[in-house]
């Protein structure tokens, strides 16, 4: 039987995730949006692209959650994006209600699905999804780290003039400007970044990575990034459907790892058919540990605002 992936929110990231996923030809896709016609229209358009690329993928869209029945994976992108000058945390109250609805409406039709959350503030919305669905934490996780890490890898590859294939970056922490790009674990062909780049260039890359989302928000002026977030989600969906045991930075529920408890937070985790199989712990420097603490305190403060 074919796998089925439902994407809630057919806006920029939802539709782009569907696009990247369709190219992988690993699942049929359903797009759901509250705006009448939007998901249907985009699904039909994408469906009509399939003969050109020779992919046998069925894509449906609508406003009705019945369409999502028996999904293997549910992706939640529904919500508002940032406007220039807004932080991700400014979206909390409005998006919490939207994500809660999306999670409950899909759970009714797909009680066995794996949930991947994209809506901001990311770690908080992922926590909310786990709580309201009552699903075991390994079946609910969020996308942020693959995006933050691919941004960092892009800047490193550009700086050194090497192939992106040689660059391996790992960004941990909450998906906010206090995220923690790891400079001695990230590497170019095995050589740690802090040994291959002068300190001031590395600092500039870390800073640009942290502000990477905001850089795009201020350029676009309406909405936020969608190509790289979309492909990051598609990568996670693929890891689940193909049971790849892929290690990637994701927002995962922590129960003591890095001395953090009852929080969703960006860490490296292994993904397979059952969701998160394992959380990896890197040996961190004192500075990195401290930076993670600062980032975690901000996420925890926002989780508390949910009053769950
Ligand atoms: O890395 C990451 N985690 C992120 C997160 C990267 C990029 C974008 N990130 C966040 O995802 C962003 O801050 C937003 O909170 C979400 C969605 O961003 P997107 O750019 O896709 O926003 P759009 O284009 O506005 O699309 C959101 C869609 C839009 O079509 C709405 O009509 C729909 O969500 N929406 C709903 N769909 C279903 N149900 C409800 N209730 C609903 N409310 C809005």
Short synopsis of the structure:
The protein is α/β, with parallel strands linked by helices.
Care to describe what's here?
The protein is α/β, with parallel strands linked by helices. The chain has 2 domains: 3-142, NAD(P)-binding Rossmann-like Domain (Rossmann fold, 3-Layer(aba) Sandwich); 145-305, L-2-Hydroxyisocaproate Dehydrogenase, Chain A, domain 2. The protein contains 11 helices and 14 strands. The strands form 4 sheets. The protein has a 6-stranded parallel beta sheet, with helices on both faces. A 3-stranded antiparallel beta sheet has the order 7-10-11. It starts with a strand and ends with a helix.
Low-pLDDT runs: none
CATH top-level class of the largest domain: Alpha Beta
What is the first-to-last residue Cα distance?
38 Å
H and E string? EHEHHEEHEHEHEEEEEHHHHEEEH
* Backbone CA Rg: 18 Å
CATH hierarchy: architecture of the largest domain: Alpha-Beta Complex
Tell me the CATH superfamily of the largest domain: Lactate dehydrogenase/glycoside hydrolase, family 4, C-terminal
Structural class: alpha/beta
Question: Biggest sheet: strands, sense, closure?
Answer: 6 strands, parallel
CATH topology of the largest domain: L-2-Hydroxyisocaproate Dehydrogenase, Chain A, domain 2
Task: State the oligomer.
Answer: single chain
Overall average pLDDT: 97
Overall 3D form: globular
Helix content bin? 40-55%
Strand composition percent: 15-25%
Structural domain count: 2
Ligand list: 1,4,5,6-tetrahydronicotinamide adenine dinucleotide
Counted beta strands:
14
């Amino acid at each position: 039987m074919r796998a089925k992936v439902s994407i809630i929110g057919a806006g920029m990231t939802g539709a782009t995730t569907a696009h990247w996923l369709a190219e992988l030809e690993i699942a049929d896709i359903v797009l759901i949006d509250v705006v009448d016609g939007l998901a249907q229209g985009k699904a039909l358009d994408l469906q009509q692209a399939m003969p050109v690329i020779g992919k046998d993928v069925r894509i449906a869209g609508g406003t009705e959650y019945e369409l999502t029945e028996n999904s293997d994976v549910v992706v939640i992108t529904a919500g508002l994006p940032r406007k220039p000058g807004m932080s991700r945390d400014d979206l909390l109250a409005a998006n919490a209600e939207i994500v809660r609805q999306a999670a409950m409406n899909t759970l009714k039709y797909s009680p066995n699905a794996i949930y991947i959350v994209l809506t901001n503030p990311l770690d908080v919305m992922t926590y909310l999804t786990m709580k309201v669905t009552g699903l075991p934490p390994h079946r609910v996780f969020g996308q942020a780290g693959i995006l933050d890490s691919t941004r960092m890898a892009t800047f490193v590859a550009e700086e050194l003039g090497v192939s992106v294939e040689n660059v391996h970056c790992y960004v941990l922490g909450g998906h906010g400007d206090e995220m923690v790009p790891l400079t001695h674990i990230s590497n170019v062909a095995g050589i740690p970044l802090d040994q291959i780049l002068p300190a001031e260039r590395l600092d500039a890359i870390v800073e640009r990575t942290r502000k990477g989302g905001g850089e795009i928000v201020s350029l676009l002026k309406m909405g936020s990034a969608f190509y790289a977030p979309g492909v990051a989600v598609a990568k996670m969906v693929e890891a689940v459907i193909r049971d790849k045991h892929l290690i990637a930075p994701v927002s995962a529920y922590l129960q003591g790892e890095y001395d953090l408890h009852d929080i969703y937070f960006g860490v490296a985790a292994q993904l397979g058919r059952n969701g998160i199989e394992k959380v990896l712990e890197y040996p961190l420097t004192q500075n990195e540990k401290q930076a993670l603490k600062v980032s975690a305190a901000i996420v925890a403060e926002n989780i508390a605002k949910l009053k769950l």
